[in-house]
Amino acid sequence: MKEAVPSPFSRCGMLWCFQQLSHEEFQTFKHLLRESKAALRLPQTFTWEDVQNAHAEKLASILHQQCPASLVWATASSILEQMNLSLLTEVAREKMKSLEEKQSQYKIHMMSKFATKLEGQQDLTQLACDILEKEVLAAAFSPELSGFRPHTVVLHGMPSCGEWALARAVQLCWLQGELYQDLFSYVLLLRLGALQPSEESSLAELLCAEWPGAPLPDILAQPELMLLVVDGLDGLADALGEEAEARAGCMCTDWTERVPVWVLLRELLCKALLPKCSLLLTVGDGALPALGPWLQAPRFLWAGQLCAGQLEEQPQTEPGAAEGVSAECAPASQVPGAPQNQALGGQTPATQAIWSLGEWTPARQALWRLGRGLALSRLWLGASEQQRLSADKGAKLVALCRLAAAGLQAGRLELPREMVQARGLSPEHLQDLLGTQVLVPQRSPEGVSTFSFPPGLQPLLTALHFVLDEVEPLRDPDPQLLGVNAQPLDPHCHVDHLLPMVRFLYSLMNEEATQTLETVLGRPLSPRVRWDLQHCVSLLGHRAAAHTDVLEAFYCLFETQNPNFVRSALSGFQELWQTLLLPADLHVVAFCLQHCPHLSKLRLEVRVFYPLDVTNRISRLQKNSVAESWEKLCSMFGTNSELHQLDLSSSILTEGAMKVLCAKLCQATCKIQKLTFKYAQIPLGLNCLWMTLISNHNIKHLDLQGTPLLYEDVQMACEALKHPSCVLESLRLDSCGLTEDCCSLISQVITGSPSLHFLSLAGNNLLAKGLKLLFTSLQASQCCLQRLGLGSCDLQASACQDLTFGLSKNLSLTHLSLSDNKLGSNGMNLLCLSICLPSCPLQRLTLNECDLDETTCGLLAIALQGKSHLTHLSLSVNPLGDGGVTLLCASLKTPCCHLQDLELVRCDLTEACCEKLSCVITENKRLKSLDLGGNALGDAGVLALCKGLRQEHSSLRRLGLEACGLTAECCEALADSQHLTSLNLLHNDLGEAGLKRLCEAFACSTCSLQRLGLCVWQNPAPMQKLLDKLQQLRPQLEMGEDWYTWGQEDRFWWRY
């Protein structure tokens, strides 16, 4: 017969014995233990090196993990007897016996606090299993492969009512012997939700509230055997972050000391108080940022706001249901999974009535199990299914909704008696409500003074408050209740406690819920509510919204389970950027994107797949649910004909995920043209991507920047690119770890792919040998390459000889980027030889950070005076100085110079060169753009430039003056420059007077300005008003800090 799971007291008793030994005695014990290995019957995988290096606690843990407890004690007693220390084992056994008696008393006490029938508690146990598989909970405190065992586990991602239920479920599972029997002798629940952050208490008081008269000195003497399940952290998290500044004088290391609750919580989290005690924290995702800095080596487990894996697995019918009755139309008493536990609210006729508010689908069953349905079950309607409420009960419901909304608006969980009665609830109504647990009395020594709603019910009633005819908040909404700076029913309000209400409000837009609610209430729901809810989401599609706002909107839409409603709300979305961190995020976004018909650009950072080294520790259910949701998401790539760009940058994609993705991309209906995987983690699965390039004739652009590639990957990629069916035009392999060996393969692509026009290899250490192979391939007549990026490739001056030969015979290359390579004068001398040739097709040359100086400017000046076809030249971040620019200006004034765009950012220029540049602006009829940002031009320099800008025949339309040390003195001259269409004035202290003059000029109808680089948010109020007024007068004028990204894809072609 298999031995029962050993008590943690066994390990504790053994540890006590080891701690009584001196260092020499402990080493002797380990030596004798090794000689007794045959008696222990240790497995073959056991390594004695671990024993030799183990301290006392580690050795006790190792022995109990590998051997039955009885065998461990028999062997240890024999060894200690050999050492003449047999008395130690007897003392240890007596201590174990005493502790086990106290544990038994605690278990008896706790079982009496739960419902009297153990069968009724199975729903709590089932709830824990539904949120996380039981084996995941059981392994929460298991050691890593390295031997490290976490003492803090964070279960996150649940609604507040789910947190409480899960905490109780964990405690019950331990009481019933199903969890942590070999780890903890006590599992204590620490409820903090009802406490104010500044309220003073001690750990002893809080624990005694759970177990009055507890022998705390004995229990806390061995904290390593105790697990604290901490609930109610969401309300304290913000206070913990706010009060963190006041650390001085607010320390606590004594469990009997009374301190503010936030201090007590902080000391527990950072292990200043009971450092050896284990913590299991149940918390919502919103509280993680505030709690994170205080946690010591935590392990995070996601519980989720819905159990996505069960959405597909749950059968529609259950054994035992009436024949022919499906789960989705069964009454509550027959619905599988509907709670019967009185501790959770009970099963009453009122519960059955509320089930009719929504179609019983697997999705809603999952929501029930995680707390949503818990709130619904407690809504007291007092009517049978599909039956209209009486006038009396209807009035009761309206009053109850008003009460819930008033409390939520004030942020109150406990409602004074006066507030309850002021909402039209008579004593008789109150008695009825108390009898059905809709209102819970909070008793004090003086009697009942306040009331509270059960978890989750208050936001639901507040949602009903908005849809009843008697309440019309849309006419004069309260911004504190309905969100700030937004529509009245904005789901993206910044008050966290309102978010559950908003989600419930959206859930009432479910078609079945709407129909049934209208029947029960006997009145139609306001169509304005539906329109407002859709409009709130649609607004996010027309402006730059935060990722968290869009994700919360998607969660709200998921609540509706109404495809028509979702499609209408998302019809205006054309671009979307979203980060998916949780399996629930993936499931919700997959649902919403199925109904987003006009999406053309989609960027997703997918972080829900796990690396291979942790896959075995993830539950099977969670892995399956992620895979199913990912397949559902990928299916829309073949159904949305308007989706042309897919960006999965910074995603973590497993081999299986890539196979699913590529299978969908290979469909004939997939219209995606641009694929981006910047800095994605794809350790396996690239093979199917290369095959996709052959199968899908719509994919023209592929970006793998920052994604490590092996030689074998490059080999397969090049074979695909040379395939006649591959039509890829653009390939970016920046910083992919390519070597000179890869250049031989890539050079074959350059000569063998007629469709490839853009290739970027920036950030790869290709060395001289690899670069020579590339430059040689440029000479081939079959080369169709038009754009080549070789920035940061360690291109030395010596390699420019090969580049020159390649350019001299190439007939297609028009764009070349050599930025961040130390070319110097020698390299530029060779490069300029090819630029001067009439046959060289080069038009755009980027030489940023190439160690160029005044001498190289002379070489470039000569090249520009020749028969060069250059139209765009970027020399930024090179120490050219005023002398170098003067040499360039001489060439720019000649009629044979075709330059249209000159970039001279951070080139050590001063006002001394501005007169020369002003002459260029006046005389050069081709120069359209000049960027001088980051140079100390000052007001005097800009005044000189403006002389040229004021000339009627000046062709310059784009001018960059960012961080040039400008003040109000130059604003009058800039205001007269009416021909500019794009101007960058970021990071200049123009002052209120200067900004006022510019705004007056830019507001004129004769002003041609279309884009203005200017900080529009961080200005004093008077300056902000000037900018706001300008925006009103010129709504088509683009203003902001992203001047370099406005329609600059072609100008900065090597970046995009």
Automatic annotation (TrEMBL):
<comment type="similarity">
    <text>Belongs to the NLRP family.</text>
</comment>
<dbReference type="InterPro" id="IPR004020">
    <property type="entry name" value="DAPIN"/>
</dbReference>
<dbReference type="Pfam" id="PF05729">
    <property type="entry name" value="NACHT"/>
</dbReference>
<protein>
    <submittedName>
        <fullName>NACHT, LRR and PYD domains-containing protein 5</fullName>
    </submittedName>
</protein>
<keyword id="KW-0677">Repeat</keyword>
<feature type="domain" description="Pyrin">
    <location>
        <begin position="10"/>
        <end position="94"/>
    </location>
</feature>
<dbReference type="GO" id="GO:0005634">
    <property type="term" value="C:nucleus"/>
</dbReference>
<dbReference type="InterPro" id="IPR041267">
    <property type="entry name" value="NLRP_HD2"/>
</dbReference>
<dbReference type="Pfam" id="PF13516">
    <property type="entry name" value="LRR_6"/>
</dbReference>
<dbReference type="InterPro" id="IPR007111">
    <property type="entry name" value="NACHT_NTPase"/>
</dbReference>
<dbReference type="Pfam" id="PF17779">
    <property type="entry name" value="WHD_NOD2"/>
</dbReference>
<dbReference type="InterPro" id="IPR041075">
    <property type="entry name" value="NOD1/2_WH"/>
</dbReference>
<feature type="region of interest" description="Disordered">
    <location>
        <begin position="313"/>
        <end position="345"/>
    </location>
</feature>
<dbReference type="Pfam" id="PF17776">
    <property type="entry name" value="NLRC4_HD2"/>
</dbReference>
<dbReference type="GO" id="GO:0005739">
    <property type="term" value="C:mitochondrion"/>
</dbReference>
<dbReference type="GO" id="GO:0005938">
    <property type="term" value="C:cell cortex"/>
</dbReference>
<keyword id="KW-0547">Nucleotide-binding</keyword>
<dbReference type="InterPro" id="IPR050637">
    <property type="entry name" value="NLRP_innate_immun_reg"/>
</dbReference>
<dbReference type="Pfam" id="PF02758">
    <property type="entry name" value="PYRIN"/>
</dbReference>
<dbReference type="GO" id="GO:0005524">
    <property type="term" value="F:ATP binding"/>
</dbReference>
<dbReference type="GO" id="GO:0050727">
    <property type="term" value="P:regulation of inflammatory response"/>
</dbReference>
<dbReference type="GO" id="GO:0005829">
    <property type="term" value="C:cytosol"/>
</dbReference>
<dbReference type="InterPro" id="IPR001611">
    <property type="entry name" value="Leu-rich_rpt"/>
</dbReference>
<dbReference type="GO" id="GO:0106333">
    <property type="term" value="C:subcortical maternal complex"/>
</dbReference>
<dbReference type="InterPro" id="IPR011029">
    <property type="entry name" value="DEATH-like_dom_sf"/>
</dbReference>
<keyword id="KW-0067">ATP-binding</keyword>
<dbReference type="InterPro" id="IPR032675">
    <property type="entry name" value="LRR_dom_sf"/>
</dbReference>
<keyword id="KW-0433">Leucine-rich repeat</keyword>
